[in-house]
Amino acid sequence: MSQTTTAPSTWQRFKQSDFLYYFLRDKVAMVSFAVFMVLFVLALAAPIVAPSDPYKLSAIDIMDSELPPSWLEGGEPQFVLGTDDQGRDILSTILYGSRLSLTIGFLAVGLQLILGIVIGLSAGYFGGRIDSFLMRFADVQLSFSTMMVAIIVSAIFKASFGSEFYSQYAVVMLVVIIGVAEWPQYARTIRASVLAEKKKEYVEAARVMGFKAPRIMFRHILPNCLSPILVISTVQVANAIMSEAALSFLGLGLPVDQPSLGSLISIGFNYIFSGSWWITIFPGIVLVVLVLVINLLGDWLRDVFNPKIYKG
Fold first, then answer.
1. Per mean pLDDT, which range of 2-11, 51-60, 106-115, 191-200 is the poorest?
2. What's the CATH number for 81-304?
């Protein structure tokens, strides 16, 4: 009797993959991933784990403003990391702020992905004048920094609709600004991958079978370009979080009543020389750690997908 062998499940293939093998050998990657997951889960569960809701004005007492951390003289036990200038608990604002910063970071990278993939695939696959036009457009886009685009867009938006309307849609505006400003990174990388992939036999076979260009681009070529996209996405999440923090610090990002890590640092910067250092220092530490671990994971992914460094 012939024995029938069952195909390994997705989980079994993952446990036997080189990806997991190299991950378990790299302590920096494991620690970075663990720290990121802790911050991510705490931010996601902010409404549950936060001592108070910084958005709930009725729960905020202005008499509790600028209280130091609980272990310092003058601190109170319910405010572990102290309070800000409005009397909000710093720990709660950090948790809610991390949630907002991560949301903007992931959504902005999602927008960059969509724009970069569509433009990069089109430029690399069709070539010719379409390639020249799209790449020159990307060059023009790269000549403008994220800050410059943000200043222009926010100024136009505020002048057209007013500051109050801008405050209501600040998250959407930041996602659009950061997403539109950074898509050329994806487009250039994907274009280079497509130029190499479209000469291969499976693409020629798909053309002979009569498949249309969109199907060949998205179902056949794109899956073979995912490795560099994954590496760029990891780094770009960190860049998007930093961009949001910088814009909020400059007053071009989220309003005061929607605390992100950048806006918290901006608020506390005005009080750091008066002795209330905790308002800026603690959100700043969380921001630095969050961006650091994401960048370390991005560097590890780049090395793993580089065959010159990691060999089976």
1. 2-11
2. 1.10.3720.10
